[in-house]
Design goal:
By secondary structure, the chain is mainly beta. The protein is built from 5 helices and 23 strands. The longest helix has 26 residues.
Length: about 350
């Protein structure tokens, strides 16, 4: 009987320890200084709002509560109240619409919904940047020049290209190769980073020469720029963050703003893409490469350990390369920094 009571007591103690561990695990999701409520304002993002409550803002899909008053809990608007509650001992974030004494309806266009991440920092990369394979680049028509033997052309000018259109559509994009991506570990060619220079409409085709009228230009169109079908990109404002696939690690290939170092809200390219199972919304932890310093005693060089320096979320995926937005950074992010599952 005494052994039975001791065993039962041990079981109860282990159960309490397990429950406390689970509680601590849930509590770790919350910031120590989290508010009980937060009123959404114009310019907010879901990531920013969740960061006021959570230590890991990208985990907001795990704690959003299902609110019967809100058709889609990921669509919130300025004036909504985000509040913290607890369900079965676990934290939940709910959405409460503003309300008055009398029943009323509020209509908010979808484009006014609070986005998941700051779209202003990625919209140009969604529209104007793409990664192309070497074969596709070679097949794309190239610019011969402009009317009157011009070497440089702009909006309103007519240009001529040679080759066969990749897709028979009226609106084409004029792109220029800005970077060549190779895997830093295997030296595998990953693709060319292409930047859109202009939009042009096909005016006529004569054998292998194409006449195009430039409708809109960001830069001057030059000889040897490539003519590629314009991507029909639907601007995605709602992303659902999730940890990157298990076992998939990568490295930062470039900072798309043209510099070597980056920080919060800079866009970077990484050496992993659709073939590795990446999708928009995948989150990586960024680890800064350890610096090499000289030991003052032995005079030998020592490599310092890697340290976590931030998080990024993938927002556009190609076959072998992806674009990600740095959402948080505690240190400078540089080309060659490693990416791991958060």
């Amino acid at each position: 009987m005494k052994k039975l009571l001791c065993g039962l007591l041990a079981f109860v103690m282990l159960s309490l320890v397990h429950v406390q561990a689970e509680t601590r695990k849930d509590n770790l999701l919350l910031r120590n200084d989290h508010p009980q409520e937060y009123v959404v304002v114009k310019g907010d993002t879901l990531w920013h709002i969740s960061g006021r409550f959570l230590q890991s803002p990208w985990k907001w899909p795990e704690v959003w509560g299902v609110n019967p008053q809100v058709d889609n809990p990921h669509l919130i608007y300025p004036g909504d109240v985000i509040y913290l509650t607890w369900v079965d001992g676990k934290p939940r974030l709910g959405v409460r619409r503003d309300s008055g004494i009398y029943p009323r309806a509020r209509v908010s266009p979808l484009e006014h919904a609070i986005p998941a991440i700051p779209l202003r920092d990625i919209i140009s990369f969604l529209n104007d940047n793409r990664v192309m394979s070497e074969n596709l680049l070679k097949e794309a028509p190239y610019v011969l020049g402009g009317r009157g033997e011009r070497l440089i052309s702009g909006a309103g000018d007519r240009i001529y290209a040679r080759g066969s259109l990749l897709e028979d559509q009226r609106r084409q994009g004029v792109y220029r190769a800005a970077n060549e991506y190779k895997d830093p570990d295997t030296e595998e060619f990953l693709g060319f980073e292409m930047v859109k220079i202009a939009d042009a409409d096909v005016a006529a085709q004569s054998e292998d020469v194409i006449s195009l009228d430039i409708v809109k230009s960001h830069k001057e169109v030059r000889v040897l720029d490539r003519v590629v079908p314009t991507e029909e990109v639907r601007i995605q404002s709602i992303f659902y963050p999730k940890p990157s696939p298990e076992g998939i690690e990568g490295k930062i290939l470039s900072v798309l703003s043209g510099v070597r170092d980056a920080g919060q809200f800079n866009v970077v390219a990484l050496n992993r893409g659709a073939r590795e199972g990446l999708d928009a919304g995948h989150v990586f932890a960024i680890y800064r490469r350890g610096e090499r310093i000289k030991d003052p005693v032995t005079k030998e060089f020592v490599t310092l350990p890697q340290e976590r320096s931030g998080e990024l979320m993938v927002f556009k995926v190609f076959e072998k390369v992806s674009y990600g937005l740095i959402m948080q950074s505690t240190d400078v992010v540089s080309i060659g920094d490693e990416l791991r599952q958060p």
